[in-house]
Design brief:
mainly alpha; about 75% helix; globular
């Protein structure tokens, strides 16, 4: 599953460099450098705290999901390391790196990957719901995203309704088993569904969505604090704008399935900052670069550190980067 990762990661990093080079050219490199130099760096600590709140709340959701599907043997510290380690492969295309958490659970706790992989799927689903709800907060002020939000919420509601109806799900699984070539994955799909069904019942779903909204609002606040460092006022309108911009840009990025949402997230965030808060191109690009360093790249760094600690502490853990 995780063979030949280095070439994929190198290509993703090369693409990231290209994205940031293009953003630098767009913002005019000297003006971008001047904007970064004029940013009030006293806001960095508060920004990082807001981002760490995101990670902390998402970890609570992960650990809660382990309990929901009956995995009570994973101690909190090991669970934290496994959760953070999942960030280390963010730059692997196609979201494959997300499954590292399932691989680590398998290697140390002998949890079938088909059993725990549904947690990863539920995390992404509730992330999208949480982000959509946050974006919806700003729709009353910025109605340009209303059609996309309606479509997204309708699709998510339909998917959850199907998952919660055993009759419909059983029928779909039965059809899958009869499809030539794909039918051999029917048992895997059934295992995934059984775990997903537990997590998508209304009570655990409501708890997970609430945690998702709180977590991702932390990163929306991080963007707000960065904008404050560029001199924008501490007003509710700016906070709502930051929430709408960050949530919408993140959803656009996730929809592309590019590693880390590269390209789409940066482009849409820079454009929305210019459109909705009247930021100049250099300040919009600088704010985008700062928030991505404090969110995406910080997560990757913490993930690599957690994976290193986990591999050193657990000799049975797979050596992903060896």
């Amino acid at each position: 599953m995780f063979t030949n990762l280095r070439p994929k990661i190198i290509w993703s990093l090369a693409f990231a460099a290209l994205v940031y080079f293009a953003l630098t050219l767009y913002a005019d490199a000297p003006k971008l450098a001047d904007a970064l130099a004029r940013w009030d760096w006293q806001w960095l600590a508060f920004t990082l705290i807001a981002v760490l709140v995101n990670y902390g709340v998402r970890f609570l959701r992960w650990h809660y999901y382990l309990r929901v599907i009956g995995l009570h043997t994973v101690p909190p510290f090991s669970s934290l390391l496994i959760f953070l380690a999942g960030f280390s492969l963010t730059m692997v295309p196609g979201k494959l790196g997300e499954l590292l958490k399932s691989v680590l659970l398998k290697s140390h706790y002998d949890v079938p990957i088909s059993h725990s992989a549904s947690i990863v799927a539920a995390e992404r689903l509730t992330d999208v719901i949480g982000m959509t709800l946050l974006a919806a907060i700003g729709v009353s002020i910025f109605p340009l995203g209303l059609p996309a939000l309606i479509v997204t919420l309708s699709a998510l509601t339909g998917a959850i309704a199907v998952m919660q109806s055993r009759a419909i799900a059983e029928r779909l699984l039965g059809l899958l088993a009869r499809v030539p070539g794909i039918g051999r994955f029917a048992n895997l799909a059934r295992n995934l569904y059984e775990s997903a069904y537990l997590m998508l019942r209304w009570r655990p779903l409501s708890i997970a969505v609430a945690l998702s909204v709180i977590a991702w609002f932390g990163e929306c606040v991080a963007l707000f604090l960065i904008l404050r460092g560029f001199g924008l006022p501490e007003t509710l309108d700016v906070l709502l704008a930051a929430t709408f911009i960050y949530a919408s840009a993140s959803l656009f990025g996730a929809a592309t399935f590019m590693p880390g949402g590269l390209g789409t997230t940066e482009g849409s965030m820079t454009s929305l900052l210019q459109l909705l808060v009247n930021a100049s191109a250099p300040i919009a690009a600088a704010a985008t670069l700062l928030v991505r360093v404090c969110t995406l790249w910080l997560a990757i760094g913490l993930g690599a550190l957690a994976l290193f600690i986990f591999e050193r502490a657990d000799k049975t853990a797979p050596k992903i980067f060896s």
